[in-house]
């Protein structure tokens, strides 16, 4: 037995016009968690700006959302470069209007033992996840110019315990979590809320070694006994940025099916990363 499945992605959770007239910018919005967030915001009436480096993919996704009656525009943007962040935000505002919601989802990741991470490999991950998140938050805040706004940052549950074979991303995500708390404290006086969405086990095609036939069985080790669904990620992000969460800021909402509760003596045998066939799935 497992926790029941969530409502389908197209089923409403919040009012369909809740974000009407608002623009939500989602970094890395062309796939995975970013796309889930984009769909949730769009289904609540927002125009979503899908930004990233792969403009072809973003265009395809925007067209697909458009066929569903959802409003989306693709914008090329490299979050690693402050000047390009500024240019990208400017293009979004010229195209669809002022941005009031920011979802920092862009990231890069690949399994590698810490002693084998080169400086370039380290920067390839941390510049997107940590630097990019900060540059986007800063540009978003500057353009609000005193108006209220909401930010949600895509975090991961391994910020607390680390993840063997993922030192670069784990360190970057931990930095993002601290940044979330710091910005919430600094900007709360101006009505800018900053929250994090701590995502647990989410099997998807972007994970090295992902096998859809094994995703379900592997998830039975968590209390919920099923994998996290994309629409649950999107809806949680939409709620945190909605008027229903106006007194919530500086919060890191864990959405992992209770996986963090498994901190007891009945753990599986630890397999050294050096002895694993797949670094992330030991």
UniProtKB/TrEMBL annotation:
Q: Which UniProt keywords apply?
A: NADP, Oxidoreductase
| Pfam families, A to Z | adh_short_C2
InterPro entries reported in the protein's UniProt record = DECR2-like (IPR045017), KR_dom (IPR057326), NAD(P)-bd_dom_sf (IPR036291), SDR_fam (IPR002347)
The reply on keyword Lipoprotein is no
User: Which domain of life, per UniProt?
Assistant: Bacteria
* GO terms classed as biological process: fatty acid catabolic process
**Which terms in the Gene Ontology molecular function aspect does this entry carry?**
2,4-dienoyl-CoA reductase (NADPH) activity
Residues covered by the Ketoreductase domain: 22-233
Q: From which residue to which does any coiled coil extend?
A: none
**SUPFAM superfamilies per the UniProt record, alphabetical:** NAD(P)-binding Rossmann-fold domains
Signal peptide region: none
Decide whether keyword Oxidoreductase is in the record.
Answer: yes
PANTHER family to which the protein is assigned, alphabetical: PEROXISOMAL 2,4-DIENOYL-COA REDUCTASE (PTHR43296), PEROXISOMAL 2,4-DIENOYL-COA REDUCTASE [(3E)-ENOYL-COA-PRODUCING] (PTHR43296:SF2)
State the name under which the record lists this protein.
Answer: Short-chain dehydrogenase
């Amino acid at each position: 037995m497992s926790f029941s499945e969530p409502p389908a992605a197209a089923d409403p959770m919040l009012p369909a016009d809740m974000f009407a007239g608002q623009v939500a910018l989602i970094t890395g919005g062309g796939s995975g968690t970013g796309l889930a967030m984009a769909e949730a915001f769009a289904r609540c009436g927002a125009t979503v700006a899908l930004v990233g480096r792969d403009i072809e993919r973003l265009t395809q996704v925007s067209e697909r959302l458009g066929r569903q009656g959802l409003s989306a525009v693709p914008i090329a943007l490299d979050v690693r470069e402050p000047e390009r962040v500024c240019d990208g935000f400017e293009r979004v505002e010229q195209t669809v209007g002022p941005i009031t919601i920011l979802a920092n989802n862009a990231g890069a990741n690949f399994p590698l033992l810490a002693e084998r991470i080169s400086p370039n490999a380290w920067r390839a991950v941390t510049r997107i996840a940590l630097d990019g998140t900060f540059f986007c938050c800063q540009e978003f805040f500057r353009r609000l110019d005193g108006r209220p706004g909401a930010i949600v940052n895509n975090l991961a549950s391994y910020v607390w315990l680390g993840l063997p074979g993922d030192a670069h991303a784990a360190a970057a995500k931990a930095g993002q979590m601290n940044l979330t708390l710091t910005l919430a404290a600094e900007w709360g006086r101006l009505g800018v809320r900053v929250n994090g969405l701590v995502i647990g086990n989410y099997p998807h095609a972007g994970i090295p070694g992902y096998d859809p036939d094994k995703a379900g069985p592997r998830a039975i080790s968590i209390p919920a006994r099923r994998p996290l669904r994309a629409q649950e990620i999107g809806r949680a992000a939409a709620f945190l940025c909605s008027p229903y969460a106006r007194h919530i800021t500086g919060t890191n909402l864990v959405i992992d099916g209770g996986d963090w509760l498994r901190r007891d003596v009945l753990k599986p045998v630890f397999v050294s990363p050096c002895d694993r066939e797949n670094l992330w799935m030991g």
